[in-house]
Design brief:
Length: 399
């Protein structure tokens, strides 16, 4: 950002908005890669019939990879220039996506999916970068703006993957992502400024310091566990939806499963609003409301095993609840220790995506035996765990 650009409040605000939109795009395009596979499970089953019973491992291992990448790569944002880290991970992601697209058996696709998850943590460099750029009074709104991009990436990934797979095959989905990442890399080189490292700790001590943050901040522990339970509920639905729609009475392909992402994207519009509310009123009340919305969504799902309209209503309620809780949780934790935002974010997001992987795994285990009602009940259980964990922390405890 040049001096002239920042010479007036209006020009500074425009410059900040432009950077936040770029960071939102980076987050969305990057994180989409861990969700492309969810509407493609039936395609994988057809391509690898000898391993058909294992296709549910693909989304689970991708989310585990994301958790591992959060733990091993995301803390580097406090130590090094985030712009450089984003570009290096983008290059690695392109190579890994080509391997996934060319996979001739399911084990290769699973291994590539694990690596995709690790490298997709590009998105988690963008979110703390936004918190660094924004003034404290606008931090929640800034995080909400970038998170809206990330959440749109999560939801629209399924739509894009379903549409592309319907007409060009599932392998083209991964090749298309390579093209998108290469275009984005050019924009990053031209527009994104360097970040300022806030730590000189060597890598090993940087990782160890995250444990001290967990011990030091009770609110970080509570937010992380609440977020994990909420994302487990979110993931159990999305990891099984394609299988529900492929069977009776729907008999719909990946395109239909993907189109549900457009419905869920309506909920992403709640992200900036949730950020503003957190800035003004504090985040705890909105988290409580969000948990209630997620619980209600699974009641709707349980009653909608044969109803597209019911599924649509449930998706909107689910996504608004999960996304509003995510923004509010992150607004809380970024205020705990400003010089360690990448590490605080890492603690939270590792727990978050472990929760997602557990949700996907539970979905894969529950679906064959208990069907859609079993999946819905499991989602309610995760919402209940989130409520118990969130409400046991006194409202006045912030650190």
């Amino acid at each position: 950002m040049s001096t002239s650009d920042a010479s007036t409040p209006a020009s500074a605000d425009r410059s900040l908005r432009g950077l936040l939109l770029l960071l939102a795009t980076i987050a969305g395009v990057a994180v989409a890669n861990i969700y492309y596979n969810q509407p493609l499970l039936d395609n994988f089953r057809q391509s690898f019939p000898n391993s058909a019973s294992w296709v549910g491992v693909v989304p689970a291992v991708t989310q585990l990879g994301y958790a591992a990448g959060m733990l091993l790569l995301a803390p580097l944002g406090d130590r090094f220039d985030r712009r450089r880290l984003i570009l290096l991970q983008t290059a690695g992601m392109c190579v890994t996506l080509v391997i996934a697209a060319a996979a001739q058996n399911l084990p290769v696709l699973i291994a590539a999916s694990l690596a995709i998850g690790v490298l997709a943590t590009i998105a988690q460099q963008a979110v703390p970068f936004a918190a660094e750029l924004a003034p404290p009074a606008q931090r929640g709104q800034a995080v909400g703006t970038v998170m809206s991009g990330l959440l749109l990436g999560i939801l629209l990934a399924r739509t894009a993957a379903g549409l592309i797979a319907e007409y060009f095959g599932w392998r083209t989905v991964f090749f298309a992502s390579v093209v998108a990442l290469l275009v984005l890399a050019v924009v990053i080189i031209l527009r994104l400024p360097k970040s300022k490292p806030t730590s000189t700790l060597p890598y090993g001590k940087l990782l160890v310091s995250m444990w001290h943050l967990v011990v030091e901040h009770r609110a970080l522990r509570e937010a992380s566990l609440t977020g994990a339970a909420m994302f487990a509920a979110f993931s159990i639905f999305w990891s099984v939806l394609a299988l529900l729609l492929a069977g009776a009475p729907f008999h719909l392909g990946p395109q239909a499963a993907g189109l549900f992402g457009i419905v869920g994207a309506a909920g992403a519009m709640a992200a900036p609003l949730a950020g503003k509310f957190s800035d003004r009123r504090g985040p705890r009340a909105i988290i409580t409301m969000s948990i209630a919305l997620v619980a209600v969504s699974f009641v709707v799902f349980a009653l909608s095993a044969k109803s597209i309209a019911g599924l649509v209503i449930g998706v909107i309620v689910l996504d608004i609840g999960v996304q509003a809780a995510q923004i509010s949780n992150q607004s809380r934790i970024y205020a705990l220790k400003p010089e360690a935002r990448s590490r605080v974010n890492t603690v939270y997001m590792v727990a978050y995506f472990i929760g997602g992987a557990v949700g996907s795994g539970v979905g894969a285990a529950v679906w064959p035996t208990f069907g859609w009602v079993g999946v819905s009940v499991a989602g309610m259980v995760f919402a209940g765990l989130a409520a118990w964990n969130h409400l046991r922390l006194p409202a006045g405890v912030q650190g």
